[in-house]
Amino acid sequence: MKPEKQERIINAAMKEFVKSGYEKASTNEMVKDAQISKGSLFNYFSNKKDLYFFLIQNAVNIIEQIYVEIDMNERDIFERISQVGFIKLNIQKKYPLVFDFLKSLLEEDAQDVKSDINLLLANIQKNGFKRIYENIDWSKLREDIEPEKAMNILNWTMTGFAELQIAKITSFEDIGIGLFNEWDSYKEILKRCFYKNGEE
Amino acid sequence: MKPEKQERIINAAMKEFVKSGYEKASTNEMVKDAQISKGSLFNYFSNKKDLYFFLIQNAVNIIEQIYVEIDMNERDIFERISQVGFIKLNIQKKYPLVFDFLKSLLEEDAQDVKSDINLLLANIQKNGFKRIYENIDWSKLREDIEPEKAMNILNWTMTGFAELQIAKITSFEDIGIGLFNEWDSYKEILKRCFYKNGEE
DNA sequence: AAAACATTGACCAAAGTGGTCATTTTTTGT
DNA sequence: ACAAAAAATGACCACTTTGGTCAATGTTTT
C-alpha cells in the first residue's frame, strides 16, 4: 500500500476516534474522509477494534521516536524542552492528530477497549515523562525557585505557545523562521527569571 | 421547576454535547444522566436545537457574570488574573462543564447550528478578552519585557495550574486553602521575574 | 372531588451502525 | 497482448439508535 494512502487512512481514522470516541466513531465517516471504500478498510483491518489498536500502537511508536531523537548531551533545560517542542511539531506535520488521539485514550471509557488501553499506556506514562528530564543540569537554577515549579511554568508556556501557533497557521507546512525567533524571546524572558544572574 | 433539577439537566446536556458534538449528542443519554424522562425533556424544550441554544445562552450569561464580579479597581495584573481564575473556579462548582462547552462551540461544524453559533459568540470574543485587562497598571512591568508576552506566560501558567488542580481533585467542593498558597508561590516567581526590582 | 399541571415510557419512522461479498478494476508476470 | 492474481468497490444486511410524540398516569392546587 502506498504510504500516502496509509497516512490518509490513519489520519482520517484518528480524526474520527478523537471526535467521537471509540464507540460512536463511524467507520463510514472514516472511509469517506480517507477517500477509500468500505470494503478496503475492512480488508486492511479485520474490524473496528483491530483498527483502533493499530492506531494506538502506531501512536505509541511515534512517541517512542521522540526519545531517540532527543540529544541527551544537551543539559540545559530550556534547550531540552525546545528540542522536544520542535520534534513534536515535526511529528504533527505528518500526523496532526496523534497527540490529541493519545490524549483521547485517557478519557475513553468504552468497556470494550478500556482495559487494553490502560495496559498499553501504562509503560509510556510511567517511564515517559521522567526521561525527558534525564541528565538536566539543575544547578543553573536560582536556589529560591523550586525546580518543579519552574519546569511547570516552562512547560505550560511552551504548550500554550504551541497551541497559539497551531491556531494561527492553516497548514503545518508553513512554519517559518519567525516561529523560532518568537519562541526564543519567550525563552529569554523565562531564562532571565529562572537562572542565577550571569549564567548562560 | 426545582433549581437542583434544572442544574442536573443543564449539566447532563452540556456533558453530552461536549462529548459528542451537536449532531451526535444523544437526547436519550441526557435524560438517562439527568434522571428524567424523555417526555419531560421535550416538554421543557421543543426540540434538540432549542435545548442547544438555551445552553449557549446560559453559558454566555455565566461568562457575562465574570465581568461584573471583577474588581476593576484592582490595577495589579497578577491580582486581576487571580481574581478571574477564582471566579471561574467558583462557576465550575455549579457548572463543571460550562467552559468546555463554550470551547466546544468553536469546534462545532454541524451545518444546522454553525452560523447561529458564530453569531452568538461574535460579541463575547470581540469585547470579552480586552475587558479583563481594562485599567491595568502596566508601569510596574520591566521595560524590557513585552506586556503581551508577559500576559501570555501568566495566562498559560494559570490555565496550566488550574488544569493540574482540577485533574487532582475529585469534586469541586474540596478546594482548600492549600490551593491558594500553591498558586501564590507561582505568582511570586513570575512577579519577581516580570516586575522592576523592588516594586510590589 | 374536580380541574390543572407535571411526568412518564412504550412507541414510531427514519437514519445510521459495523461488517460482508459478488463483482469490477488495476497490477503483475510472461 | 493476455491471463491470472491482487486490490478496490459499494449495494446490501440485520441490527441499533435516533429525535420526537402522545395517551396514560401521578401529583398539586383550587
From TrEMBL, chains A, B:
Keywords: DNA-binding, Transcription, Transcription regulation. Residues 3-63 form the HTH tetR-type domain. GO terms for molecular function: DNA binding. SUPFAM superfamilies: Homeodomain-like (SSF46689), Tetracyclin repressor-like, C-terminal domain (SSF48498). Gene3D superfamilies: Homeodomain-like, Tetracycline Repressor, domain 2. The keyword Transcription regulation applies. The keyword RNA-binding does not apply. PROSITE patterns: HTH_TETR_1, HTH_TETR_2. The lineage of its organism: Bacteria, Bacillati, Bacillota, Bacilli, Bacillales. InterPro entries: DNA-bd_HTH_TetR-type_CS (IPR023772), Homeodomain-like_sf (IPR009057), HTH_TetR (IPR001647), Tet_transcr_reg_TetR-rel_C_sf (IPR036271). Residues 26-45 bind DNA. This is TetR family transcriptional regulator.
